[in-house]
Design goal:
The structure is a homodimer. The first copy, chain A, is of the alpha/beta class. Among the domains of chain A are: 66 residues, Winged helix-like DNA-binding domain superfamily/Winged helix DNA-binding domain (Arc Repressor Mutant, subunit A, Orthogonal Bundle), CATH 1.10.10.10; 239 residues, Type I PLP-dependent aspartate aminotransferase-like (Major domain) (Aspartate Aminotransferase, domain 2). Helices cover 41% and strands 13% of the residues of chain A. In chain A, strands 3, 4, 5, 6, 7, 8, 9, 10 and 11 form a 9-stranded mixed sheet that branches. A 4-stranded antiparallel sheet of chain A has the order 12-13-15-14, with helices on one face. Chains A and B meet through helix 5, helix 6, helix 8, helix 9 and helix 12 of A and helix 5, helix 6, helix 8, helix 9 and helix 12 of B. Chains A, B: It comes from Povalibacter uvarum. Chains A, B: This is DNA-binding transcriptional MocR family regulator. Chains A, B: GO terms for molecular function: DNA binding; DNA-binding transcription factor activity; pyridoxal phosphate binding; transaminase activity. Chains A, B: Keywords: Aminotransferase, DNA-binding, Pyridoxal phosphate, Transcription, Transcription regulation, Transferase.
């Protein structure tokens, strides 16, 4: 990090913590320069950076001021119906996602960050090297639970945060999605009810639908996650057999459950003997001082089935994830063996080689910095372009903004209009089986290399404004 | 192929076709040399080769004679109970297979051929090259149905045999196992009955068990596959919802269904509107003059869900297979997207690069020659070492022998005794949910590079002989 970036980060933190409040004036450039013993140019660069991120703004002949905080316009805790119901959402998900596969589309609706953020060339070297060095006999040995060295490396990364996960508990899978699906299969029988956040990641809803499970959607706060009181009510009333949650940087809300709340969550579920399927794929993409712990860290009964992967933070397309499935480990391993046998050996070899070589943490630091800056840019653009009354989350990690548009705007119509302009967005309809969030959209800010994003957000904001004011896309009033 | 190998192959074919019969004398070396215009040394080398394969034998001062054909001691058509029943075999399969993972074990019970037979170094080159050359944006494009170039290449290989499979119908999967499981899910609901061969590959039984399906095991001939009359009876009586069959080189029998019989099979199933899940992973490992057609070649209604992979014939551990699922294609593609998203991109890139470069057919020709020779060696060893009354198949492709031991020998006990001597075998118990085949074993002859195989077959034969005569492994009579 350069000196001006460090100084900008300090100010951003003061704004974050409320030390500097909206409307307050920042120190003058001369004052800051003298006091901090840095050059005026450095102060200017820091202020420009903060301005670009929308955190401060200049007033003519007066200096820099802290901007109105977007967080004050964040969405409220969701209020789902909290009844257990069958899920039928898959067709809609496929319809909407199918239209965004064209590579000419601006990928704001995508679930993936830009692959250009990954060290693809370095990984490619490890692919070839790892497979050349491999004893042919090992190819069969790496059947589930997976490459032993890789499982030790994964366990070692948890150990840095003083989490003890036994490598023997870790099962390597085809990405986190397979891990989550296997865990869900292991913990439920058709007809069971599963508690999920509201809104929740559509893949969770699809998994429930595929396995003929019912969903009960639980109220969730956009900053600190699922409402434990609401969850407890559901546990008492709805005969919940499992939970599928994302305590860290939830998709789509971006919410981050504080560690003590995670501890309460795990205790609550332990009391009811209900397993937790924990989707933790964004944990490494934190913008705060350290990696948030997974709920698994507080698990004493082996009820937490922790799932993660390298797909979002390192190696898209390599399809390597894992499950640490506690008391369900043996069952998950067997199911893996029966359905897809093992994750690809070249992918496992390459990742193991890469992790060994030690570039991963450096890569992650850079990735977090890029995503944090891009979050600020995207929030500024939403504040600037989107209609009055829009609310937006301010996630502390990951790469999604959750945007609540004025109530009468239909996100599915917005998605269609955006698609006709070669822009994808993810309408709120995808994130609930209950027909909620019809005025919400999820925006992906994980493509900072895509020069078209700014213009696309402007277009979406304009389309939303027109929909809100009853103006049809061609400018004529709708009936 | 060298000249003596060519000559040996000609004689082997004459023996195969009955032109030369067991007990008949071969032409003298001088006679053959004059007639064929090849050197006596070449004739000798051909005869030595045939002798090593157990097809002919020398009698002192008399010349070479065609050996008693092992095929005359082949097992008969199986006679399963043909009733529809729930499946509970998975635990046994895991118990038995779990004990064979140690790499110090002689892998005669393995389901895989030796990885040393694969062009691993060449594939490793294509891994790195393919991923370096890849446009990062493509990484997301290769979600299901999979890498487009690879799907075209797969379709092109079918086109050589004048089979038209539309690349758009092909879905790339994590090996054939995932393809088969997805197809089975698409074609059935829990409680349905599925017809399988008897004996059948244990992975099929496990898949049925996992999805709460019932199996009806159909009589199957060790040479030409499932008995169509028996299948028709089951179709009429058992409310069969799908079939899972291996027309080409069935595992474990090695049976090869003649093409006209495949046509009748497909017509029969079409009449009953029953989909066929076709496991075709061994088709490229034929020893005859050309690749046998899949049942899919005769499909007019889109009822054949054809599954195959590169795992057995080219790239073990790369986990790349495919399904051409006919009218179920869209459903299979969606299920793939929901459960494991996609096959690993590096593996797909590497295979596509390798197929393009044109080394595949050369590799396959060599592999077939090696396996065919090894089949003969293994059959000779079984004939030599195994107890009187043993019957064995003579497969025309693949790498499994199915051995029927005298009736009172328990293959599970034999497996345990072999395991204690660091030798794995696959006991017949694994290949039926009905408790049949308790005196049968499947032997893998796909490890010609493993010098321990001969000695291990001798040990197994000895153990079987002792079990048959009531001698306990330590030489004392059992109670």
């Amino acid at each position: 990090m350069k000196r001006y970036e460090r100084y900008a980060a300090e100010i951003a933190e003061m704004i974050d913590k409320g030390v500097l409040r909206p409307g307050e004036r920042l120190p003058s450039v001369r004052h800051a320069s003298t006091q901090r013993r840095i050059s005026p140019a450095t102060v200017f660069e820091a202020y420009y950076l903060l301005e670009a991120r929308g955190l401060i703004h200049a007033r003519a002949r007066s200096g820099y001021y802290v901007s109105e905080r977007l967080q004050s316009r964040a969405p409220q805790t969701s209020r789902p119906k909290q009844r257990s119901a069958a899920v039928a959402i898959s067709d809609l998900v496929f319809d909407v996602l199918g239209s965004t596969r064209d590579r000419n589309v601006v990928p704001i609706g995508s679930a993936f960050p830009s692959a250009a953020l990954s060290p693809l060339q370095t990984l490619a070297r490890h692919l070839s090297h790892g497979m050349r060095a491999l004893d042919p006999k090992r190819i069969v040995d790496d059947l589930p639970p997976g490459n032993e060295r890789l499982r030790r490396q994964i366990a070692r990364r948890y150990a840095i945060d003083e989490m003890r996960i036994d490598p023997a508990e870790i099962i390597v899978t085809n990405g986190a999605l397979e891990a989550l699906n296997l865990c869900l299969s292991a913990a439920t029988r058709p007809g069971d009810t599963v508690a999920v956040e509201s809104p929740t990641f559509y893949a969770a809803l699809q998994a429930l639908e595929r396995l003929s499970l019912k969903a009960v959607e639980i109220a969730t706060h956009p900053r600190d996650g699922i409402d434990l009181d609401a969850l407890e009510t559901a546990l008492r009333r709805a005969n919940v057999k499992a939970c599928w949650l994302m305590p860290n940087f939830q998709n789509p809300l971006g919410s981050l459950m504080p560690d003590d709340k995670k501890q309460s969550l795990v205790a609550l579920l332990a009391k009811h003997e209900v397993p937790l399927i924990e989707d933790d794929v964004y944990a490494e993409l934190y913008f705060g001082p350290r990696r948030p712990l997974p709920a698994k860290a507080f698990d004493r009964k082996g009820l937490v089935m922790h799932c993660s992967s390298f797909s979002k933070c390192l190696a898209p397309g390599y399809r390597v994830g894992w499950a640490a499935a506690g008391q369900f480990s043996k069952q998950v391993e067997r199911m893996k063996l029966m359905t897809t046998l093992s994750a690809a050996i070249p992918s496992q070899q390459a990742l193991s080689g890469y992790l060994d070589q030690g570039g991963y943490d450096r890569h992650l630091r850079k990735l977090r910095r890029v995503l944090a800056a891009q979050r600020d840019v995207a929030m500024k653009q939403v504040a600037e372009y989107f209609p009055e009354g829009t609310r937006v989350t301010r996630p502390e990690g990951g790469y999604f903004l959750w945007v609540e548009l004025p109530r009468h705007i239909d996100a599915l119509e917005l998605q269609r209009q955006a698609a006709s302009r070669q822009i994808s967005i993810a309408p709120g309809h995808l994130f609930s089986a209950d027909g909620a969030y019809t005025n919400c959209i999820r925006l992906n800010y994980g493509h900072p290399d895509d020069q078209r994003i700014g213009g696309a957000l402007r277009t979406i904001g304009k389309l939303a404004g027109d929909l809100g004011s009853g103006v049809s896309p061609k400018g004529a009033r709708s009936a």
